[in-house]
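User: Could you go from structure to sequence for me? I need the amino acid at each position, not a summary. Structure tokens:
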């Protein structure tokens, strides 16, 4: 993956997946805009990866707020003169209760984390990608969006809304030099339990490194041929 001179936004950069993605994008030569809720954690990650001040920008932003999302994206464009890539790995999980029993707040939370953050940051970002004539947007989703199991309605609804949004966006940007794709995982295996203690249950889990490797192709120049895809990364079963 060669991303020299590309500017990449990583949301949720200090999470288990975000840290690996940030590390790999830095190794590929990208300049990085790291978005999260706490600036001190972003600064600690940049220090850990030995990112010089010319290589990165940290933004503490609540992406459920459209104005905050727009301000963060505009700050990236102002700092680096362009934006090329969004890797959107914000998200959470809610489950374990039936539709009737699930609190309304759980539905609101899942829509906030998965749909609204995606909408706000992409609405702010796409004009910058269009101006540059090249762009990549990749988000992490789940197979439950299209095949929801029992007692996971809030999470499935949030992911389904996110996927519908990005599928529509992929068609709207087709032919512009920008692509929009989704990587589907069941469980992100940050601790590599699948390898250290394999069981039938964790056989379909996916490590952050495997996700980042798939991202590498989608973010490349050669990845221009893939747009609007939902790529499953849970083939262990």
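Assistant: Here is the amino acid at each position, in order:
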């Amino acid at each position: 993956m060669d991303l020299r001179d590309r500017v990449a936004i990583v949301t949720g950069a200090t999470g288990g997946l975000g840290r690996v993605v940030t590390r790999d994008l830095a190794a590929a030569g990208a300049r990085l805009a790291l978005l999260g809720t706490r600036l001190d954690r972003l600064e600690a990650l940049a220090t850990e990866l030995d990112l010089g001040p010319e290589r990165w920008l940290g933004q503490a932003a609540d992406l459920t707020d459209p104005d905050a999302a727009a301000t963060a994206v505009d700050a990236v464009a102002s700092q680096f003169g362009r934006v090329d890539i969004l890797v959107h790995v914000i998200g959470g999980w809610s489950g374990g209760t039936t539709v009737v029993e699930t609190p309304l707040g759980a539905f609101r939370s899942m829509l906030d984390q998965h749909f609204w953050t995606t909408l706000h940051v992409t609405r702010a970002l796409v004009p910058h990608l269009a101006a540059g004539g090249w762009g990549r947007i990749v988000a992490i989703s789940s197979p439950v969006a299209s095949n929801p199991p029992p007692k996971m309605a809030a999470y499935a609804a949030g992911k389904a809304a996110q996927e519908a949004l990005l599928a529509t966006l992929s068609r709207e940007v087709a032919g512009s030099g920008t692509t929009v794709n989704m990587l589907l995982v069941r469980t992100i295996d940050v601790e590599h339990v699948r390898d250290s203690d394999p069981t039938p249950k964790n056989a379909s889990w996916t490590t952050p490194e495997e996700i980042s490797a798939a991202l590498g192709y989608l973010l490349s120049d050669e990845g221009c041929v893939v747009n609007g895809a939902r790529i499953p990364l849970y083939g262990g079963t």
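One structural detail worth keeping in mind: DSSP finds seven helices and seven strands in the chain.
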